[in-house]
């Protein structure tokens, strides 16, 4: 876990429903507790209401009702923001169009906004621009406004989508201010001392296979893989001997609830062993916790703190 603290940006990815938002919010709380100034960001769609507040899963995981496209204070050292493509597009237009006034007028035009949201890779580019802006933001004394940006990505493939835009865009626009910004974005994304992606998965057969595939994809795109979190690992109270004893006791008996739990524990052990063997990055197991919302992420942040050096 300590290694994550040295990064400037952590991108949390994984399949739907595995716990990306929970893990992102928990990493943010963990890092804030370690004294880092943290900004936790959720990617949201573009569309018409660029500045409208959004009800978000991340807000709930942090104990708030909603987020805004400007950072809001959550707790000491901890802020959260909705990462919409719109602000990135605005900055992008300001970089390409000759005058700020013109860029702002262009952003007010529904047609241009719709175009920017619809063109493939443009939403991602808006997000990348905005991410860069947030990562670079400095305070008056010259230090970074936020030491660490934790991004809750919406679904598998988005970390990859972010990595793909720079290359495809550079082919179309090889020079100029956009190309420069895009190159910087790419350099940031691919620098293991700056950026780390985090893959979240569940301790079951299929999710583990998918996570291994995702890790391979991430490495192929040269995005550094920092940590794999195997989330919702069932509580396992047994030593190997105790487990055998319980197995013998249950053998030949009619099916019981405990047997199901034992099977889940067994599958989880196999799953952890499988992903540990397949992936080079550190694997951190996070327990299934019977809490929700902000209490859940408080608890998971504590689990991360005790997870050791991974
Ligand atoms: N370690 C955990 N213990 C108990 N419940 C958990 C844990 N991690 C996540 N959950 C629960 O699982 C559900 C899904 O988690 P979460 O919203 O973080 O997943 P997600 O990957 O962000 O989903 P989506 O793909 O929809 O964005 C939530 O109800 C959350 O409270
Ligand atoms: Mg989520």
TrEMBL record:
Gene3D superfamilies per UniProt: P-loop containing nucleotide triphosphate hydrolases
EC category: translocase
E.C. numbers: 7.3.2.7
Pfam families, per the entry: ArsA_ATPase
Catalytic reactions on record: arsenite(in) + ATP + H2O = arsenite(out) + ADP + phosphate + H(+)
Listed GO MF terms: ATP binding; ATP hydrolysis activity; ATPase-coupled arsenite transmembrane transporter activity
Domain ArsA/GET3 Anion-transporting ATPase-like, chain residue ranges per copy: 8-169
Membrane-spanning parts: none
Annotated family: Belongs to the arsA ATPase family.
This protein's name: arsenite-transporting ATPase
């Amino acid at each position: 876990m300590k290694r994550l603290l040295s990064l400037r940006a952590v991108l949390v990815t994984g399949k739907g429903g595995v716990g990306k938002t929970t893990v992102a919010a928990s990493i943010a709380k963990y890092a804030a507790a370690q004294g880092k100034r943290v900004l936790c960001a959720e990617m949201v769609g573009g569309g018409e209401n660029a500045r409208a507040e959004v009800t978000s899963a991340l807000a709930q995981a942090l104990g708030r009702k909603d987020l805004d496209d400007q950072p809001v204070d959550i707790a000491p050292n901890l802020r959260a923001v909705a990462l919409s493509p719109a602000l990135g597009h605005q900055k992008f237009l300001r970089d390409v169009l000759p005058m700020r006034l013109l860029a702002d007028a262009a952003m007010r035009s529904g047609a241009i906004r719709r175009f920017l949201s619809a063109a493939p890779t443009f939403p991602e580019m808006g997000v990348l621009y905005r991410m860069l802006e947030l990562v670079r933001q400095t305070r008056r004394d010259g230090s970074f406004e936020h030491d660490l940006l934790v991004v809750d990505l919406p679904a598998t493939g988005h970390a990859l989508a972010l990595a793909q835009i720079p290359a495809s865009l550079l082919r179309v626009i090889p020079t100029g201010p956009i190309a420069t910004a895009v190159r910087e974005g790419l350099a940031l994304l691919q620098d293991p001392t700056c950026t780390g992606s985090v893959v979240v998965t569940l301790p079951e057969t299929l999710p583990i296979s998918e996570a291994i595939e995702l890790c391979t994809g991430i490495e192929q795109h040269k995005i550094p893989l920092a940590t794999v979190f195997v989330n919702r690992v069932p509580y396992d109270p047994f030593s190997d001997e105790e487990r055998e004893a319980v197995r013998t006791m249950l053998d030949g008996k009619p099916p019981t609830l405990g047997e199901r739990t034992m099977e889940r524990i067994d599958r989880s052990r196999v799953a952890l062993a499988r992903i540990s063997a397949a992936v080079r990055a550190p694997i951190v197991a996070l327990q299934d916790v019977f809490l929700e919302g902000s209490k859940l992420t408080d608890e998971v942040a504590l689990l991360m703190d005790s997870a050791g050096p991974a």
